[in-house]
Each structure stands twice: as C-alpha cells, then as structure tokens.
Please model this.
Amino acid sequence: MMKMNARQLGNTRLAMLNKPRELATRAEFAEDIRRNWMNALEATVQVGRRLNEAKEKLPHGEYEAMVEQDLPFKPATARKLREVATFVDSGKVPLEQLPEAYSTVYAIATMPEERTPPPRATL
Model:
C-alpha cells in the first residue's frame, strides 16, 4: 500500500465529503455556518489534546519527527494547538465563554496569570 503524506490524506478526505444540502434563507446559512464554526473550534481542541497525548506517550524524538514529517502544519502551530487544549482542559474559562477563534484562545492561554481576564458570571 502506498503511504500518503498528510496533505494527500487531507485532500482525499475532503474529496469524500458529501455536497452540503442546499440552503435558501439567511437563517439557514447563518445556522449552518455557526454550527460548522463551532465544530472547527471543537476539532481544534481535539487536535491539541491528541498532540499533547502523543508528546507524552511517544518515545523521545518521535513526537517532533511526527509533527515535522507527518502532519499538515508546522511545529509552531502544533505548540499553539497544545497550549489551547491545555488551557481548555484546565477549566479556567467555562467552555461556553471561550472565544470562537483558536488564535484568541491561544492569546488568552499564554497571558501571564495576573493579566488573564476573569470569567464572566453566568446567570
């Protein structure tokens, strides 16, 4: 069996996605886009969790080799994704209050503790 690189694997998976259902109204488009956006953030956190797990469990040097050779992003991105997952799992901010962009979550996660904004009170 031919080994596929990460980009080829991603392209194959994208090609396998079904054509999305037809949307007609503003509300339908907005709902579908919101749902997909939130799924993207959840997927980002899951990727970060897997990266943390791989770093912990793989033999010395294997994690770095995997990130550099087998994944479709650079080591700096992997580091950010790991930070985001660690921050989310810390519970410092309730999930429903997380910003929707992983880059914003990363910025908050890497702030010095004394500068991190407190969570908003929920009713």
